[in-house]
Write a structure and sequence with these properties.
It comes from uncultured fungus. This is Putative beta-glucosidase. GO terms for molecular function: beta-glucosidase activity. It is a single chain. By secondary structure, the protein is an alpha/beta fold. The chain has one domain. Helices cover about 45% and strands about 15% of the residues. It is built from five helices and three strands; from the N terminus they run H-E-H-H-E-H-H-E. Strands 1-2-3 form a three-stranded parallel beta sheet. The longest helix is centred in the middle third of the chain and has 16 residues.
Length: about 110
């Protein structure tokens, strides 16, 4: 692909939480199609000798969580929901060795 032609050795990208768990909650259904998308994408990078660095959260949380909690980061369940999403992707993408949990800090 283009990245290989350009000589890229590393590619950092963010996951879209709603693609993995559409409603976002730890007890909500997992979208296997979303998981499959990222598995295929990572496999493509690795096949081209490009190391993936995956950011789990870049502040694009599922709208279902906002509806459920109001102010998302204030919800007591939010950390548990994030943990579940992280565990799902860590398990689904064992070939990935480089993870970034959050894009940056947030204060309120």
């Amino acid at each position: 692909g283009v990245m290989k032609e350009l000589g890229a050795k590393v590619y950092r990208f963010s996951l879209w939480w709603a693609r993995i768990i559409p409603e976002g909650g730890g007890n909500d259904p997992i979208n296997q199609g979303g998981i499959d998308h990222y598995v295929k994408f990572v496999d493509g990078l690795l096949a081209n000798d490009i190391t993936p660095f995956i950011r789990v959260l870049h502040w694009d949380v599922p709208s279902g969580l906002d509806k459920r909690y109001g102010k998302i980061l204030k919800g007591e369940e939010f950390p548990l929901d994030f943990e579940m999403c992280a565990r799902v992707v860590f398990k689904a993408l064992p070939k990935v060795k480089n993870w970034i949990t959050f894009n940056g800090g947030c204060s309120s």
